[in-house]
Amino acid sequence: MTTSSGSAVVTLPADTQILVTREFDAPRRLVWRAYTEPELIKRWWAGLRGNVTSVEVDLRVGGRWRYVMQANGGFEVAFHGEYREIAAPERLVNTEAYEGIPEPDANAALVTMTLVEKEERTFMEVLIETRDKDGRDAIINSGMESGMQESYDALEQVAATLK
Predict the structure, then answer these.
(1) If I label 137, which of 12, 15, 34, 109 is the partner at 20 to 30 A Cα–Cα?
(2) Upper half-sphere CA count for residue 22 (Cβ side, 13 Å)
(3) Tens of pLDDT along 54-97?
(4) Pair 144, 135: CB distance under 8 Å
(5) In terms of DSSP H, where are the helices of 1-143?
């Protein structure tokens, strides 16, 4: 296995957009499974930042999702959203609301994740679209990048263990 540890690249293509790209040393169908199945999400979503305490996934258009973790600092972190488009195993579109801010649903981002496979490796693009530049900057300034690197490293490890 060629490790891709810490290799996610974050760019800001527009004032309301964050684009994350990363390559995984695993086939697309396994990355998709690790990304969408509750028992697998529990193994990677918190990275090294805490322990996942709850994962709810209703993987259908209009279905809802919610992930909760107990962070290492003793506080709870939760996100939720709604699935808007599902084209397994290549594209997933959903809203994402951070429950730790006022009016999380009014400030939810739209997240489009695409997976492309080349020679048993998977190339992921995640486009996060926010309501405004302040929302985008708040996400960037939250330290999301280092936590995301840890989570995606763990996601790759989980996908690589699947058959």
Answers:
(1) 34
(2) 26
(3) 999 999 999 999 999 999 999 999 999 999 999 999 999 999 99
(4) no
(5) 28-36, 38-44, 133-141
